């Protein structure tokens, strides 16, 4: 018997990540090739955005995806999130010329407060929320705090692009296949302060740290390359990463929903105090997923260098949290 459709809400649906994301969700790459989906697409009410969204919908229709059981266009989160099982919050306010970080935080706080409240009011009680729009960790924190009737653990932020970037750099350094890399972790904020950590990583059972055996490369090449990859892509393309960001969003949701078979992946999730991170901080952690739930990998030793890196990314997140405190 075929499965009943699930509802997938995507915000910023007419943007560039949306364009790289929706077709893959509709073709079954996110939730499985046997799972029909109804897309509930949200864009800002402006005519230009709504027109662009119509164009994307025409293209989705023209793909005749067998798994696409319905498409809806919305300009209000209260209707876009109705009964939704999955919500990918991609749309956000980009930083404009002359805009200070505080202005950016405030503009996004408004968006994610409203969207958190709407999820709280109308989404499925089991909704899985992924925030992609930057600053992703703090936006996810705001949405979570604005949805007190939903479990906090249902709110997550995207660190998977950083995880995939780190894996790819390690594959290229070691000359091994990216698919063989296990037990990689990225700690903290989706920002250049993130700490990509290969101390526990293995390839074919062998330690990646021993294989590379170069702490200077780790500190001076690997970490800055992964941390500043987003900026390097903006410099090269003139716009921010879109296909790789959409791909990471698919990876994040697929693994959360369908499980990782014991493999580690990175998700930004609300802390319960693990590794001394204050409770509720939306922090990148290594996790495993099973039965639709993620579990933080606990008990890993943190050496002095790692603690320093974790403290730095945590301090940045605490600063962002402080910057929006009065808006919540
Ligand atoms: P984009 O500007 O091409 O598209 C964003 C879309 O969101 C626009 O169509 C806009 O109209 C819409 N939008 C804005 N506010 C909205 C709201 N309140 N409700 C619904 N829709 C809204 O941008 P993009 O390239 O698709 O990137 C989207 C976001 O993802 C940006 O914030 C970007 O910085 C972020 N990003 C995050 C990661 C990550 O790893 N977490 C990676 C890449 C990009
Ligand atoms: C990325 O990591 O590619 C993006 O978050 C960059 C950005 O600032 O949009």
Automatic annotation (TrEMBL):
Residues 6-155 form the Lactate/malate dehydrogenase N-terminal domain. Keywords: NAD, Oxidoreductase, Tricarboxylic acid cycle. Substrate binds at residues 95, 101, 134, 165. Its EC number is 1.1.1.37. Catalyzes the reversible oxidation of malate to oxaloacetate. HAMAP family: Malate_dehydrog_2. This is Malate dehydrogenase. It comes from Sphaerotilus natans subsp. natans DSM 6575. The gene is mdh.
């Amino acid at each position: 018997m075929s499965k009943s459709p699930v509802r997938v809400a995507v915000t910023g649906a007419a943007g560039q990540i949306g364009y790289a994301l929706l077709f893959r969700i509709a073709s079954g790459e996110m939730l499985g090739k046997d799972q029909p989906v109804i897309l509930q697409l949200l864009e800002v009410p402006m005519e230009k955005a709504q027109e662009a969204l119509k164009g994307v919908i025409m293209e989705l229709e023209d793909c005749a995806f067998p798994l696409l059981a319905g498409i809806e266009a919305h300009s209000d989160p209260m209707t876009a999130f109705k009964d939704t099982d999955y919500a990918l919050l991609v749309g956000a306010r980009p930083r404009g010329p002359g805009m200070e970080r505080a202005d950016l935080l405030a503009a996004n706080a408004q968006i994610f407060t409203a969207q958190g409240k709407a999820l709280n009011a109308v989404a499925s009680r089991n909704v899985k929320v992924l925030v992609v729009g930057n600053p992703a960790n703090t936006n996810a924190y705001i949405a979570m705090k604005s949805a007190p009737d939903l479990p906090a653990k249902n709110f997550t932020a995207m660190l998977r692009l950083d995880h995939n970037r780190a894996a790819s750099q390690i594959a290229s350094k070691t000359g091994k296949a990216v698919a063989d890399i296990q037990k990689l972790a990225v700690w903290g904020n989706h920002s250049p302060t993130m700490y990509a950590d290969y101390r526990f990583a293995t390839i074919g059972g062998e330690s990646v740290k021993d294989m590379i055996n170069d702490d200077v490369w780790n500190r001076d090449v690997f970490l800055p390359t992964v941390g500043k990859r987003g900026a390097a892509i903006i410099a090269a393309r003139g716009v921010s990463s879109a296909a790789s960001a959409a791909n990471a969003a698919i990876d994040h949701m697929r693994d959360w929903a369908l499980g990782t078979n014991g493999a580690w992946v990175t998700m930004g999730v609300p802390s319960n105090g693990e590794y001394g991170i204050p409770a509720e901080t939306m922090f990148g952690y290594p996790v495993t997923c099973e039965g639709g739930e993620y579990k933080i990998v606990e008990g890993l030793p943190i050496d002095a260098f790692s603690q320093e890196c974790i403290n730095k990314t945590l301090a940045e997140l605490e600063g962002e949290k402080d910057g929006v405190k009065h808006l919540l």
